[in-house]
Amino acid sequence: MTKDDCYQVGHITKTHGVSGELVLFLDVDNAAEYADLESVLLEVKGDLIPYFIESIAIVKGSRAIIAFDDVDTIEQAERLINCGAYLPLENLEPITDVTRFYFHEIVGYQIVDAEEGELGTVQGVYAMNAQDLIAMDYQGKEVLIPINSDIVRTVDRANQKLNVALPAGLLEIYMEENDKADGSPEALKGNGDETDSSPDDTDED
Q: Which of 17, 74, 71 is nearest to 42 (CA)?
């Protein structure tokens, strides 16, 4: 099974105790729905490996204390820290409500603004603590769109479109920032020996 056949539910953040238990951060709307998990796929060195769950307890909202079969020591558990946790797409209940969507399903959708019309495509979703954000490719630039009911209105699954009402001036802010960056002395230096790297990102609804 590949990641294309799965959706990410969270990731392992740290060990818990000394008997092989781990803390699983569940990047989902309702962590309680995952309290009866029997197994999960962990991404270990690029491969999805099935791990059978011995026990799981939801604590502190989106965090779970989890114990896997055959993971009995802190040394074994430490090897799983930062591993992504996945489940098969077939586990998901289909959503028919046009105001709700799974984050993974809108990747590639065309974003259509109520005023400006078609803008660009969804490249991904950043699941943040304060605000989930849609990353849109707009004229070759990344524009981040907050996910809330006032901005992201409906999803048209038949035509793979996401209908939005962007705040006034949002696009202009991003384009102005990029124009300034393109004209800065640092940007004009061109192909130097040093490069900057951007921080990595994404919860599944």
A: 71
Which CATH fold topology does 104-188 show? Answer: SH3 type barrels. (2.30.30)
Strand order of the β-sheet with 161-164 is 141-146, 133-138, 117-126, 110-113, 161-164, 152-156
Which CA distances in Å does 26 have to 52, 96, 112?
17, 23, 30
* Pick from 106, 86, 82, 107: nearest CA to 6: 86
Amino acid at 20: G
pLDDT value for 181: 59
Mean pLDDT by 10 residues, the chain (205 residues): 87 96 90 93 95 94 94 96 94 88 91 96 85 93 94 96 95 78 45 39 45
What CATH number should be reported for the domain whose range is 3-91?
2.40.30.60
Residue from 125, 129, 110 nearest 205 by CA: 125
pTM: 0.62
Amino acid symbol at 200: D
